[in-house]
Amino acid sequence: MAGHDEQELLSRLFMVRHGESTCNSVHRIAGQRDAPLTFLGRIQAEKVAMGHRGRHFDRVYVSPLTRAYETADTIFGIDAPDADAPEVVVDERLMERDFGSYTLESKSILQRRHGIAEYERAMNADSPTMHGGETFQQFNDRVHAFYEEELLPALRRGEVVCVVSHKYVVELICRFILARPADESYDLRLPNSQMLQGDRIHSYVKNENKTMNMVYDWIVVNHPVVFCGGLAAGLLANVAGLRLSTSPYVLLLLLVLASVITMCRIELENARAFVTDRGTLRSVALRYLALPIAFAVLVHWWDVGSSSTAAIAAVFLATPSSVVAMTVSRCLGGMIMPTFAQVLLSSLAATVSFSAVLALTLHEDVAPAVAISVATSTGVVTAAYVLVKRLRERSPIRTAKYGERKGYVAVLLLTAFIVLVCLKLDLDGFTTYAPTAAGIAVGLRLVAALLKRRRHVQTLDDYTAMTYPNVFVVVIIAALTGNGPLEQVAIWTLLPMFVLSFFDSFYARFLVVAPDDARWPAVLGLPTHRPVRGRPATEDPREPSVPAHS
């Protein structure tokens, strides 16, 4: 085919990956499980429809899986066609690859378990780590049959064609167009609902860098190593005499930015379901209300003083969960939304628990301390939530794409936070404050291990949320109340908290729910039986297409 003819032919080809599905929102591999679209997924499809309104399409090829079919229906009105509607062909050869044992697994967990290179090989070729499902050759053969028997003939007839399918199907078609050898394939990071035009595939692929993509994934999966690298760099710089007292507002900004990036990719539109979950409400009431207030009463009864280890521990028990926990949840393979719910609810609970604990332990300047704690915990979390929710409404495709691809930036922002805190440390206070800080970091993990829900799909998120307290709030409270020991312990606590992320990464494997757990279909909205749509892949594609009704 001549170069000019090829460009003209490809200019009439459009491909769309389905909108965000319930599996996408929790970073799990759907494969051929029939995951529906999320609220954001439907908005993404509507944006595509608006962006291409008025463009004529002769034929639309659609995967029968619900997430792709709903996307196509939103864009082209499959179930309510008008006179100018394109012919719709539902073809089973466009279904996503059956990933066998990888199905419903967390991407982060698989990358940590098998290594990033092996994970990429399993998803884009064959790997002994993936059992069952389709071999890459089987997947390649059926998609190539569609490409040769359906897609190319339609384009050669001069038709304008759109293919609405799945990530790895679209990437495989791109590979056919580019005539790329199988051993050169890799993840193209195709975002949900982005419409890719055929004559722009070369430039899209050119912008991807296989090595850097794997480096970015490595940063997310190995976040404990990155955190501790920042810790070591900050401490060495401090020892060398580089002391830097960073504004607390700069530190707060780093935490907020990291949380905003993480929140860009989670299903905030369904936040109410998680915030009102009875199990979550019970956990928050016990962990952030009953336990800290009871402990503070004992401290007050003992009358040990506001600078004592017991009083400081009481303050930390009342401290709400940090936005850091959401980033850690994503890195560990959690659902993230339950962690967000605990961060928000614990911040609200802090208005009561902090008032009681500070009144019982600090005895003075309680009112401004409580006010600032509310502003810097509840206010910040709520503001980040409102901002990201607005971004997801205004620019759903770009926002989700940014959240998916920039997870490593959130980890690097937290690492910068660690470095700056280390530069602020008074190393002379190591023997005075470090033991208490280490005890608090370990103690919080013991409390989280005891109070988390057992064998629940949200167990990992429970543990993560309870493990990472909002130390920034404690530092502000200590500064306002003039409690120097509390401020130093808070800063020192950051060191063991991030060092213990190695333990959290190890412990997470015992908390995460297996992909074959019977509860996942209900959580992710997966139907027992997939609806029959269109014609099967074995039907002669030259015959008239079956009307695409669900």
Helices, strands, pairings?
Elements: H1 3-10, E1 13-17, H2 22-25, H3 39-51, E2 59-62, H4 66-76, E3 87-90, H5 107-114, H6 116-124, H7 136-156, E4 161-165, H8 167-178, E5 195-197, H9 201-206, H10 210-221, H11 223-239, H12 248-263, H13 271-275, H14 278-302, H15 309-318, H16 324-332, H17 337-361, H18 366-394, H19 396-405, H20 407-424, H21 430-451, H22 459-467, H23 471-481, H24 484-499, H25 501-511, H26 520-524
Parallel strand pairs: 1-4, 2-3, 2-4
Antiparallel strand pairs: 1-5
Helix pairs in contact: 3-4, 5-6, 5-10, 7-8, 10-11, 10-20, 11-20, 12-16, 12-18, 12-20, 14-15, 14-17, 15-17, 16-20, 16-22, 17-18, 17-22, 18-19, 18-23, 20-24, 21-22, 21-24, 23-24
Report on the architecture of this protein.
The chain is mostly helical and 550 residues long. 62% of the residues lie in helices and 4% in strands. It is built from 26 helices and 5 strands. Strands 3-2-4-1-5 form a 5-stranded mixed β-sheet, with helices on both faces. Helix 4 (66-76) links the parallel strand 2 and strand 3. The model is unreliable at 535-550 (pLDDT under 50).
